[in-house]
What we know:
Layout: H1 5-17, H2 19-30, H3 47-62, E1 66-70, E2 74-79, E3 86-91, E4 109-111, E5 114-116, H4 124-139, E6 147-152, H5 160-168, E7 174-177, E8 180-181, E9 184-188, E10 190-199, E11 209-214, E12 220-221, E13 224-229, E14 243-247, E15 252-257, E16 261-262, H6 272-281, H7 288-299, E17 315-316, E18 320-321, E19 323-331, E20 335-344, H8 350-363, E21 367-374, E22 377-378, H9 384-397, E23 403-406, E24 419-420, E25 423-424, E26 438-439, H10 441-459
Parallel strand pairs: 3-6, 3-7, 7-24, 8-25, 9-23
Antiparallel strand pairs: 1-2, 2-6, 4-5, 5-26, 9-22, 10-20, 10-21, 11-13, 11-19, 12-16, 13-15, 14-15, 17-18, 19-20
Helix pairs in contact: 1-10, 2-4, 4-10, 6-7, 9-10
This protein binds zinc ion.
The site of zinc ion (ZN) has 5 residues, from loops.
Amino acid sequence: MKSDKNIRKIIHEKCSDYYDEMEQFLKELVAIPSVMNKAEINMPYGENSAKVLDVFLKKAENLGFKTRNIDNYAGTIDIGEGKPELGILCHLDVVDAGKGWNYPPFELTKANGKLYGRGTTDDKGPAVSVLYGLKAAEETELIKKPVRFIVGCNEENGSDDLEYYCKMEDLPEKLYTPDGQYPVINIEKGMIRGKFRKKFSDFQSEKSILKIYGGNTVNAVPSEAFAEISNLTEDEINIENGFSYEILKSSIKIISKGVSAHASTPDNGKNALTALIELLSHMNFNCEASDALKSLSQIFPHGETNGEHAGVKCSDSKSGSLTLVLSVLELDNNNIEGIFDIRFPVNFKSEEINNKIQKTLESHGFEYQCILASEPHYVDEKSEFVQTLLKVYESLTGKKGNCIAIGGGTYVHNTAGGVAFGAEMPGKEYNIHCADEYTVPEEMILNAEMTANAVIEICG
Ligand SMILES: [Zn+2]
């Protein structure tokens, strides 16, 4: 390796020396709530996203880098001239704070050896580490080929910052993002989101389902679902674990509680919606709504996450099994409407999966509309680029480096050959997108070292 033991030691010292500066800068960035907002003139994602980009690029300039603001969609920070040999990609936008924080989400708080705040891991913290890692690498005077650090402002809302960037410039062929996890994510499953619907002609009957609603996030296993039912007596409700009920004025409300999980890992959750559907499908209603629920309980049986009964079960050795989550459902007087989220393995195409589920839903009388289809992302594990990143990981952690496949999409999903390299350590939970998101000082330093060593390996 080019970054031999000696160089690794020098880099470790430099990055450790930069730690206080890194923490101070992260504090500044966390204080800017760069959640996507209404577009304003020359600010496509609102004022705070433009501000965080400006602050970041100014810091990079002060550290001696050449920078460029691409119309407040993204920015570039360059080492060297000409076509970049390596690109590193981070995002400066964050998701909303949400509820349940023990610390102020938009103030960096140091407690129990951790740094709490929105964006500390996703992805402002890693962005700061990359910046100082580049600085450390540059100071070694070992970089011979150009490197480009790209910071975008729209990863959390569809990554159209990258689309805009690609209209202006090509992305480097070798590209990684510390917006996922270590060691290297080289496989991301494909994704389909579909909407189905059935209209009712008769609705009110003696005992009927007035309403069902559950799930408000397309890409998550719903943790709560509700049904309101008229002319039902308390004795008729066969309440099992996970359900409760409330007596309303002219109906009974059944509440189903589950456990939320990301749609790419549905086995970590418990679907409150499919549980409710199953419960209701066993009760005796005489209405079209009830027939529709029976169909849904056949297509999306409670506890099944591999899409078997929807007709889409498949798997491959590279990326594992398809996953399917019924994530949103709404039923009222006129119709029933639902949305599901599928993550499918890399050896398949969205069209074939989509056709299959369409056939299943239509055979049960549902109208179907595909609302999103994205093909899988795959980068060869044996490529020199991926192998180099794995070696850097191994040399700095002493752990075995291997590639991983995930169901979620990272920032590089729609790029030609990009992979995710960090910044989460395998098996650790950093509460990204949740309350009390955090990073730790040692990992900020380590992430900077990963950057510096990777840059020296690839561009030295
Ligand atoms: Zn992210």
